[in-house]
Structure formats: C-alpha cells, structure tokens
Amino acid sequence: MTGGASLVLRLGVSVVVLLALAALLAPWLAPVGPNEQDILARLHAPADAHWLGTDNFGRDVLSRILFGLRTLFAVSALSVLGALAIGGSLGLLAAWYGGMVDRMVMRLADVLFAFPIILLAIGVIAMLGPGASSAAAAIGVAYVPIFARTLRAPALQLRRAEYVDAARAIGAGTPRIVLRHLLPNLTSVIFVQASLSLSTAILVEASLSFLGLGTQPPTPSLGRMLAESRTFLTLSPWPSLFSGAAILLASLGFNLLGDGLAERLDPRLRGA
Amino acid sequence: MGRAVLHRGGDLLFVSFGVSLVSFLMIRLIPGDAVQLMLGANAEVTQAQIDALRHGLGLDQSFARQYLIWLARMLHGDFGTSLSTGRPVLTEIAAASGVTVELTVLGLAAAVLLAIPLGCAMAALRSPRASLVMRLLSIAGITVPSFWLGIMLLYGVSVLAPGWALVGWRDLTTDPGGNLRRVVLPVVSIALPVVASLARILRATMTDALRQDYVRTARAKGLGERAVLLRHALRNALIPFVTQVGIMAGYLFAGSVVVEQVFALPGLGRLMVGAVADRDYALVQAATMLATLVFVCVNAAVDLLYAAIDPRVRTT
What we know:
The complex is a heterodimer.
Chain A: H1 2-24, H2 26-29, H3 61-97, H4 99-114, H5 117-128, H6 132-159, H7 162-169, H8 174-210, H9 222-229, H10 238-265
Chain B: H1 2-28, H2 34-39, H3 47-56, H4 63-75, H5 89-124, H6 128-143, H7 146-160, H8 176-210, H9 213-220, H10 225-262, H11 268-277, H12 281-309, H13 311-315
C-alpha cells in the first residue's frame, strides 16, 4: 500500500500547489480583469477567445474563477489559522493544567461543537453583517472546538513524556517546554487537522457566499458566482459547471493532502 | 446502563444550558446598538418605539436578569416576535421546519441504505488497486459541494425531461406525489457526500472487524464468505457506524439549509437567510438554538442506543 499512499499524498500536494499558484498569480494569469465586461460576448460557450466561456455580462469565466480562488483561499485559510491559534492554545492549556481548567475548556468546546457548523456561522454573520471578514470570523469560531479537541489528546500524552520531565528537571519554564518540546511534536497532528479543516472550511465559505452571506460583490467569489450563474442555467450551464468544479477541486486537494499526510504519519492507517 | 443514562443526562443538561447561553449572547454581542440596527435608517421611528422594542427584547435589564427573563419566556413557549412578519418566531420556525426535517430524514435514510451495502462491498474487495480507487472515490464524494450537485442535477433533468416539475414545494399531506417528485433531487444532492463518508467509515470498521479472532473462528468452522461478512463482521462494525450516523444528521441538516436555496424550498435555510438580511435577530437566535438542541438530543439518543446494543458499553 505504500505506493498507493504516496499517490494520494502526491495527488493532494499537486492539486493544492497548482491551485495555490493559480490563485497567487491570478493577476498575471487571468486573460482579462475579473469584472471586465464584453457585452458582445455574453454567455459564450468555452472557445479560443474565452477558454471557459463567459457569463451573462460577458465576463470571462476563467478570470473570475482565478480571482475567486484567491478570495476562497484567503477566507478559508484565515479562519482555519485563527481557529488553530485560539482552539489549539485552549487545547494545550487544557492538557497542560488539567483539572478545573481542562474541564472548563472542554465543556466550552462541547457546547460550541454542538452547533451544526453552518448554523453557528449564520448566527455569527447575523451579528456581524454579511461579508468576507464576517464569514472568516464565523467559520473560525465554528472550528475552534475542533482544534481544541485535536490538540488536547496528544498533548495530554506528551505531558507525561520523559523528555518533558527532563526539561522540567533542568529548570525549563512552562512556556519554554510548551513551545520547544510539546509543539514540535504536535506538528504532524496540526498539519493533518489543518489540511482536513481547510477542505471543509472551503465548502463552508462557498456555501455562505452562495447564500449571499459571505463575500460581497464586486469581489469575485466562487460561491457567489455559482449563485448568480444559476439564474441563467438553462441558457448556459458552463459558468455554473466550472465555478462549482473549482470549489470541488480546492476542497478535494486539501482533503487528499490531509488524508495522505495522516496515513504517512500513522502507519497503522495504511491500507485502511 | 443506569449510570450511562445519568451521565449522559448530566452532559445533555450542561450542553443545552451552554447552547442557550451562546444563542442568548448572539444578540447581546452585536457591535453597536441592536435596536438601532434593527430599526434601520427609518426616520419615522419615535423614541417611544425604540424604548418599546428595547423593553420587548429585555435590553434595558441587567445581563443575568436578561438571560433569566429570556429563558423563562422560552420555557413558556414565547420566543419573541418576528420583526419582518410580526408573527411569533415559533410559528415561523414551525411552518418552515417541516421541509428541512423531511429532507434531513429522507437524506439520512437514503444515505444509510446506500452506505451499508457499499461499505460491505468495499471491505470485501481487498486488492490494493481496488482500495485505492475506492479511497479516491470516497474522498471525492465527501468534497462534492451539495449545492453545486443540486444545480447540475437540476440542469441535467431539465435537459432530459423538460416537463418534470422540479422546483417549489408541495405539502406531503395534500399532494404526496408532487411532494416526493420535488424532494428526489434535493435529497440526492445532500445524501451523496454523506454516503461517501459513511461508506468509508463502515469499510474501515469492517476491515478492522475482519481481523478479529471471531472472524477467524467463523471461517475455520467453514462458514461462507458472505455469512462471515454479513453475520459476524457487519453486526460488530455497525456499532461505531451508529454513532457516525448521529453526527451525519447534523451534516445533512446543514446541507439541506443550503440546498433549499437551489430548489426554492420554503425551509429553515431560506427562513434564516431571509432573517439575516432583515436583521430579524430573534428569529435567527431561536432557529439556531432550537435546531442545535434537536441535534444535541438526537446525538444523546444515539449514544443511549449505542449503549443498548453494545453490552460492553453498558457496564462502564
């Protein structure tokens, strides 16, 4: 199964790198501006002039997808990083201090975890008002308990490791032990969880934008593009097809990456 | 078993309390003055109306008092009044939840019915190539955006069968045929990612079960592969599967909230999205809390079911 394992990982890395490059280089790669209209070329099917066709305003679908990927990645990455920083710290805190702190943090995580992600996100957006930054905050809040839980369990084991005792014996303080000894040993867990979380956060961001609660125009957004192209679906299915496929590919890339990484880091999972 | 029930009961109470507190905080934590935001830029509003709304929301009281008043009102069935329709929030939610519940329940049933044979078939195929293909397919299935799938299905059917009524809603009780015809595509769209995810989990637990001693014993006494898979491995693998089904109910619900928008179904999703746009905070708050509490109870029930079917859990 080693060959298969590395194939999943290789596929994941390729898709993620390719899409990340496409998003980063969007201003140079895009044939035209994402909001540039060519009124004479509305609802064109894919052709030489517009590789992925045009929408109802004659905007180039490929350019809009490239810029939409930027927004999608920026919002999802921001929310996952925020959740990792806050949730991860809470998880480490709970594992390190144990007792009352542990119980309080984990109870809080239980409560937040009880909310279906999209509902919690809609609730937060209701407070902050629709927009890309609200969506990032909303998704971040929803993912905090996931990182708290994922980091607490292995940190609990590591806390009792001999090298932690040794570090303490030579007089290292708590911050030093946590940063220099615990965290480096948790990197694999963090990478796997961050990658899988990005995969689902991308779907949540796209859902929120699709509902009109996330990224607002004129910023190009894949979810919003899908919502808009739905209105002229029977005239031209291409914009719907391609914008949704781009969301799928982005989520798929990170899921393959996380899955491949998990397998590589935990040999027991091989072949499962 | 008694202890398990008590323990779960305590957890349930605490989480429900926490959920109500978080939902309560949603309105109080709005940056700026919620009342001003709710009334918008309407210049006709008098100070008396502002005060009345503030009093209606209980915003002129102390924090703890506000929460207790809010809680007491809810326990009496008063969840507030919808700002946009003027009707009680609970009436609005009750009217919309039928659609969402139907989609979620049908989606869950379809997903479980498809995932069990799929997961078994996946566990039975053990060649490295077959496992890899199935792994890739299930990951792809999990990451398909359900709203995109819905749109693509809608397009496909509109091309193949232009006369087929696709969007809108018919009540299950008055027009069962029309209702079922309209829920097929939304249910397929929300169920597919869940089928992929459940089948993958069942495959993993089945593979695990197949390595156990009792499977070797069953094989040694000459049972056929089919009987080993279905009667021995599957029955044991279903136990962790049940927990996962409970969790997936939440995913299906979330999928339904988004997919309702694609098929123009008057469910909770549409209600909530409209409420966010209208700054109808009481409605968002009540819908979020009630739906979450339903899932908390569903998952607690699943845990008890788990304890009931697995004798090993009962004693701990």
